[in-house]
Amino acid sequence: MSLVATLPAHLRPRREKLFGDGRPRALDRNAKARIMTFARALTRRTEKGKAYGPITAKALAVLEALLWGFHNARSGLCFPSYETIAKRAGCARSTVGEAIKALEEAGILSWVNRITRIRERCADLFGHCGTRWRVIRISNAYHFTDPKGAAFRGVSSKSEFPSETPIQELSPSRDDHAPTALDPDTLLEAALLRFKAVLTATAERK
To answer: What is the CATH number of the domain that holds 52?
Structure first.
């Protein structure tokens, strides 16, 4: 579970609201494959008595629907409704909400509220007809984090809702030292270690 998720509701950062397309991030097929591999590593059970880890099979299906069914690789746009995601993933609408929450807590995705202005008819104090502008929410805009950089440089300790892109967040600087050692006793870093092992084994077979 993320640090933010443990905070009381009134202390958590507010969800960002943006006009337009949100914060799209382009991803090629390799990046999407890495994200899915990382998520599958998190499905392995970490507690006795549980059949799965922090990511369930349904959450994995929701992620697969988002990445391969709705995310535009070139533009990075991804803002389907819960109903559309549920139909694609073969689950209930309520399951989509729980899955997206779990995926965000695992650091796999995040999202912002897309908003727009609409003009509606109304009456003034004297009963005369007129119009006014109103801001409404339309859908969530999802963006995904490629685990490649995090797997080899350690987990970032920055805010869960950063304004930077993954490239800005994870690009090496002149002041960088040796990679941070991952702690196998934490759920996320243990999954990163398993993900790194899978990539290494794949590279050795080539």
So the answer is: 1.10.10.10
